[in-house]
Amino acid sequence: MKNNKVKLGFIGLGVVGGCSVNLLNRNKKIIERKVNASIEIIHLCDASAARLKQYSRQLGHKVKLSSDWQKVVNDPSVDIVIELIGGRDIAKKVIIESLKAGKNVVTANKAVLSENWDEIFSLAMSRGKVVYFEAAVCTGIPVIQALNEGLASNRINRIVGILNGTTNYILTRMFREHISFEDALKQAQKNGFAEMNPYFDIEGIDSTHKLSILSSIAWSCWVKRENIYCEGISKIQPIDIKYAYEEFGYVLKLLGVGKNCNNKLDFFVRPCLISKNHQFASVEDEYNAVLIEGEASGNIIFYGKGAGGDSAASAVVSDIMFLAKEVNMGTAGRVPYVNNSHCETLAFLPAQESAGKYYLRFSALDKPGVLSKISGILAKNNVSIAGVFQKEPVSKNKKAASILMTTHVVREKSIRDAVKEIDALSIIEAKTVLIRIEEMAV
Amino acid sequence: MKNNKVKLGFIGLGVVGGCSVNLLNRNKKIIERKVNASIEIIHLCDASAARLKQYSRQLGHKVKLSSDWQKVVNDPSVDIVIELIGGRDIAKKVIIESLKAGKNVVTANKAVLSENWDEIFSLAMSRGKVVYFEAAVCTGIPVIQALNEGLASNRINRIVGILNGTTNYILTRMFREHISFEDALKQAQKNGFAEMNPYFDIEGIDSTHKLSILSSIAWSCWVKRENIYCEGISKIQPIDIKYAYEEFGYVLKLLGVGKNCNNKLDFFVRPCLISKNHQFASVEDEYNAVLIEGEASGNIIFYGKGAGGDSAASAVVSDIMFLAKEVNMGTAGRVPYVNNSHCETLAFLPAQESAGKYYLRFSALDKPGVLSKISGILAKNNVSIAGVFQKEPVSKNKKAASILMTTHVVREKSIRDAVKEIDALSIIEAKTVLIRIEEMAV
Description:
Chain A is α/β, with parallel strands linked by helices. Chain A has 16 helices and 18 strands. Chain A folds into three domains: 5-139 and 309-341, NAD(P)-binding Rossmann-like Domain (Rossmann fold, 3-Layer(aba) Sandwich), CATH 3.40.50.720; 143-304, Dihydrodipicolinate Reductase, domain 2 (2-Layer Sandwich); 351-437, 2-Layer Sandwich (Alpha-Beta Plaits), CATH 3.30.70. Helices cover 38% and strands 26% of the residues of chain A. In chain A, 52% of the residues are buried.
C-alpha cells in the first residue's frame, strides 16, 4: 500500500544532520513500514564537500549534492526540507523560503522559531504547509508533541522545565563537589557539556527560547523572549547551594516556568530552589525534564537527555516520519500545527507582580539589633518570614554573619524593595542574595 | 474553516465516561479551535437512566439516550464510538461491532485490547478504521502516542514500567511504614486505591495487560499475556523491603519489563529491586512511570498519575481530538495506527532463560558450615555472589539466621535450580526468598 515516495532535502550535515541521515538510513525498513510509504533522501546540502561525500556514500544511492541551500529549497522534487544548519539569519531564510516554495519543513532551530513564531506559522498556515520542530526543545524528549496532541484536551496551568543541559551540568557539579561556578564551567567545557562561548546557556537565553516555544504552544499565543524575565546562573555561589540544601532541604536548578495565574501569564527563567524530595531534584548533569500541569491530566513529567546528536536525530526523524505520512496522504498542513488565535484573551503578568517564596542570605555585621533591623524592613514591605537560620561566624576575626531566611509568598516588587532598603544599611557587608523558591507538589 | 461536525457516541458513563463528557463540554471552545472542526456528542448510552439524565442535562443540547449499546453502534450519524464500559465480553463486542459498522473507536480497555490485539487491529486495518487507546496504559501519561509517534524512529531496546497504581501504593506503604502486605492492602482499600477484590492488581495481571500493549506497539508484534512471566506482590514481606534498602541500597517496585536481548524478546512482570538513586525509586503511591530506552533517544521517562477519572479523561478526549481531525479530513485509518508485521523476525526468550541479578534471603539454622553449604550449591549452579550480609539473630532463643545475598547476572533457571537444592537442606528453616534486581542507568 505504498502510494508514493516522500522525498527529503537535508540542509546542514553537522552533528544533528549527520546523525539524522544515519538513523534514517539505518532503520529505513522499519521506518517505511510504519509510515506506509517509501522515504528517500534525494538532496544533501552542506558547506563542506567532505561531509557531502561522506554522507552520500553512506546512503548508497544517487543523491544530489549542493553547497547552496537555495538549490534544495528550489528543487521541485523535494517534499520536505530538513533545516539543521543552526544559527539565525540563514536558517530563518531557509525556513521561510521553503514554505514559500511549497515545502514542508522539519527544524531543530529554537532561536529562529522563538524569535519569528508568528511570521513562520502564519506563513505556514497561509501556504497550507507545516513546520515540525520536536528537536528544538529537550531534543529527544517528545514534549512538543505531548503538548500539541497527547495533552491537547487540557487547559495548561503550569509548565516547569529544566531546559538546558549545560547549566544543569554546572549546577550539579557545584552541588556535588562544592566548587565555584567558574570551576564548574571549566569542567563542563572540558567534558563537552559547555561551548567555549557559553553566554547563551549560562545566562538563560537558551532556556528562554525553549520556554517561549513550549509556552506559545501551551497557551496558543506567541510568548516572546521579552515576555520572559531572565536571570542566568553565573552569579550563583556554592555557599547558597550548600545552605539551601542543608538548612532548608532545597536543591538549586535553573528553571523555565510559565504559569497561568488567574488568566494572567507569568513567565520566568531563573535559578530556583526546589524541594529535595521533588522528582526534579534528581535530574542531574546534562539531563532535562519538563513538568506539564494540565487541568485534567494533573502533573506529567517528561525526562531524558537534553543534548546529543542521536537524541536530536530521534526527534528529527520521528518528525519526518509523521510528516511523511501526511504528505503521502495529501493532508500535511490541512490543520495548522501551531495556532495563535488565543492571544487576545490572555494578558502577561509584569515581572514585578510575579509572586513566590524566596530564599535570602544577608551578610551583616555581627552586632546587636541586626536581626531586628532586617526583619523590621521586611515586615514594613509585607514580606512574611517562613524560616530563619543564622550561621555562626567561621572565624572569630570575621565580623560578618550570614543570616539565612525563607519567606512566605510575596510579590517580586515587595521583596526587591525590601532588599534594596536593607542593602543600604551600614550593618550590611555585601549585596544580599535573593533566590526564588518554586513550589511543586511532589 | 470548519468543514464538518464530528459526531460522537459515548457508551459507558461511569467515572471515566462522565469525566470525559465533562471535559469535552467544559473546554469545547478551545478543543474545536485546535481540531478545526466542531465536535458534538450526539448519543449517550448507559445502563443507568439517572446517569443518562444527568449528563444529557449537562450537555445542554439535544442528545439521543440509549440503554442498549447496539443503538449507538448502529446509529448512522455517529462517527466515533467511545467505549468506556470496562469489563470484557460486551466491551469487546462494542469495539468489534463498531468497526464493522464503519466507526472509529476510542477506548480505555486494556484487558480487551491486550487479549484480542490481532483480531481488533486486523479488523480495523481491513475496514480502514482506527482504534485509539491512550488511556489504556497509565491513563493521562501520553506514552502510547510517544511510542507510536514521538519515538517512532527508534528501535526500542527496553521498556520498564511502574504500571499499576494499587501495587505501587501498597509497596510505598510497606516501605514507609514497615507494615505487612495485608495491612498495606487494607489501607489502600480504605483510601480508594485498591478494589474490594484486588486480585487483578496485586497479582500483576493488570500490569501484564499494560506491558502487553506497550510491547506490542514497541516491537510491532502481538505480545500476549502468556508471553509475559507474571508474579504479583502478595508474598512480599516487609523485612526484605527493609534489608534490601538498608544493606544494599535497593527499593522494591512491581515492574513490567520488556527487552530485546540479541533479537530475543524477554518479558516479565515481577517485584524487582532497583537502585535507590534511580528516578523510579521516587515514584511513590498511586503514581506510574514508564522508561523507554530507544537506540537513538536514550532513556526517556514519562511520569504521572496512573489512576483517576480526570486523568483518564485527559487521554480519552485528546484521542477524540486527534481522531476528529482525521475524520474531518477523511484520512482516519488511511495508515494503520497499529502494525503487526514485525512478528516473524523476533522470537520470545523463555522465562527460564531470562538473565538478571538477584537478591536472596536464606533462613538457615545458626550452625557452623551453613554458609559454606549454601555458597557451594550456588557455585555448582554457576551463581556468582556479589554481596553477602548476615544479620545477627534477633533473640538468643531463635536459632535461625537471615543470610542475605545479591548475585551477579545469572539465568533464571540456574538460580531456581540452586534455590531448590538449598531449600531441600535440613539446615534451611523456611523457603528462600528470591527477588530479581533490575539494573537501570541512573
